[in-house]
Amino acid sequence: MKLLKTTLVSASLTMLAGLAFGQTNVDITGSTAYRANVYRAIQAILNPGYTFAYSGSAASQAGLEGSKFAIFIGTLQSNSASVRIKTSFSGSEAGIQAVGRPVLIAFYPDGQATSGGLGTNNSGTPVNTENPTIDMADTQQAASNFLGRYRGFTYPALTENSNSPVGVVPFKFYGAPGTTVTNVTSQMCRALYSAQGGTLPLSFFSGNSGDVGTTVFATGRDPDSGTRATLFAETGIGSRTVANGNQAPFVANTNSDTSVGDVITTAGGTINHFNVYPAGTVNGLGYGAGDNGYNSGGSLAAAINNATPAGTQFIGYASTNDGDGQLATRPGHPGTGVTELAFNGVVLGGGTTTTYDYATNTNLTYGRYTYWGYEHMYMGSGATGTILQAANDIAGNLKSSNAVLSLSEMNVSRGAFVDGGTILP
Amino acid sequence: MNGPKTVIWGGATIAVTVILFMFLHSHRNSRDVATDRRSVESHPEHTDTGIIVERPGKGAEQADQDTFSARDSVVTGGEAKTIVPQANRVSEAALERTSRPSVVSDQGITRAAAAASSEANEAEPVEIRFPAPFHPLPDNRNWSADDAGAVAALAKDFNDSVMNSANSPSDPNYYRAWMTAEWLANEKYRSYFGVDAFNALRNPDN
Question: What pLDDT sits at residue B55?
Fold first, then answer.
């Protein structure tokens, strides 16, 4: 009887505490390239005992870090505030759009089932929608289309967290199994993604006249991607430029290739043919065929990890977080595995283990390799009180501990953090 | 020596600012604002009614002998021709924002113009350079009205940056602030709109 009373009192106190203090939703969106690091930071700033759920299929830390959606329920170490930290990663620029306008996007509901330990995996795509207040972005807001007037809406300047930029985010080009392309230059990128509709003869890459008959297909991200914006800024295409060159791999020639749902997004299979990436809608805005592209670097990297049809080769770009897991040199990689391509003649290298530290990569830290950007955290007007505290905690943790590599580990920089800007010692 | 140099730079900068403002204010749709590299080949000038004229056949040597000042905004020689405004593909509102730099206030312009007039005769020849956002939009890119708005925002950032660093064109920091802000504006322009668009500003005949 005494135990029952104690239990009832305890439960009542818990309920009262919940009513008195509530739980604050902290809704984060943005960069798929940096999601693994954000997840680590979230886990680091919560008191032990938090519970969580995520969309990844594997019940593991890797499963969490590759997830588009997740929810963490717990208390902040910094001030003990009760929070539900939710994530919905769909691209840096999409995040800027969603926070700025704001746009309702998918998040797990408050009542999502969660658990401790490795968390609840395979939780699916949420139907619930909410307005995000925090965006992780691979580019400055000004480099995106979502500052000022764009396609009928006005996007305000977001507030950059005081700890932002929180670190550096490196990117790579990858080639499908069997690809003989070894290097991609800025000129080639401009031809592929701007002028030539996503294809070039292999001879353009090899200098071998015998390769004229082999076609290299290039795929890419949709316009809401910071990975794409960084590439376009770096190669001189222009981050605000419309692409017309994204190609997509399909499994069988039994459809009209006009549905995004038919595009290959998993690794280890065989590509039947290529066609221009189908038109689609991102956060309510329509994008044309070839300008539209993958909404996740993880899906893009997986798609490259497929066997290509005879007479074709296949390349694309992704963050090291999204792409390195598909490397043929990475133990446990799915399928045959992809190869890393040099960018402007320089191989970044690394990534052959899950614990590889890019801060040790001197090609990157001394400026020889240039396809990288700064990771920013932007906040909407709703980021006050506990939300702001959580944002500060996450950004602070990223900056000090959990960035891919920190600003202090770079021996070079881009003036004023301009995306694609001149790199100086 | 710093004093006279500062005055010269200040005077020249003021003159450039005044001329840019006067021209852009009255000819928002005109194409030939760019005097940058073109100033060597031909020397666009502005009459006090705002009509742009150009003296053809002027070589670099002659151009170098010119002093680009407020006083020179009157045609003084050569066969003048009027540059016909080019049809624009961007919104009027966006151009309005692009075309009204506010490096100095209206009152400041009045004072700057007076100062420029008195200093003009002593000013050394200077290379006339405008940040990329103040150039007309080049033809080699499909510009949307939203893009033009982004260019206008870069122009505003330039103005704000200069004015936040130096209170007036006579401030010794003004020139340095201008150069820094110009570098940043050019970097951003190239990043956002691509090297082809940026290079077209440097090679207006393309």
Answer: 30
Contacts of A149 in chain B (CB under 8 A): 94, 145-146, 149
Work out the mean pLDDT of chain B and round it to a whole number: 57
Q: Which residue range is the domain that position B78 belongs to?
A: 2-202
In angstroms, the CA A224 to CA A291 distance is: 10
Contact by Cβ (8 Å): B162, B177: yes
Chain B residues near residue A142 by CB distance under 8 angstroms: 150, 153, 188, 192
> Residue B85 gets which letter from DSSP?
P
Closest CA to A91 of A233, A227, A231: A227
Nearest C-alpha of chain B: how many angstroms from A223?
13
Residue among A54, A140, A41, A135 at smallest CA distance from A394: A41
pTM: 0.78
Domain count, chain B: 1
The region that residue A337 occupies, defined by phi over 0 for left and psi between -120 and 50 for alpha, beta otherwise, is left
Q: Express each pLDDT in A300-338 by its tens digit.
A: 999 999 999 999 999 999 999 999 999 999 999 999 999
Residue B142, both tokens: 């499909």
Per mean pLDDT, which range of A10-14, A30-34, A86-90, B158-162 is the poorest?
A: A10-14
Reply yes or no on whether the pLDDT at A357 is more than 80.
yes
For residue B146, list chain A residues with Cβ-Cβ distance below 8 A. Answer: 145, 148-151
A343: left (phi over 0), alpha (psi -120 to 50) or beta: beta
> What integer is the mean pLDDT of B81-94?
32
Q: Could you tell me the domains of chain A?
A: 23-168+374-424 (3.40.190.10), 170-372 (3.40.190.10)
Among the listed residues A270, A273, A265, A268, the one whose alpha carbon sits nearest the alpha carbon of residue A293: A265
Buried b (16+ CB within 10 A) or exposed e, B89-122: ebeeebbebbbebebbeeebbeebbebbbebbee
Q: Does the beta-carbon distance from A148 to B153 stay under 8 Å? A: yes
- In this predicted structure, what is the pLDDT of residue A243? 86
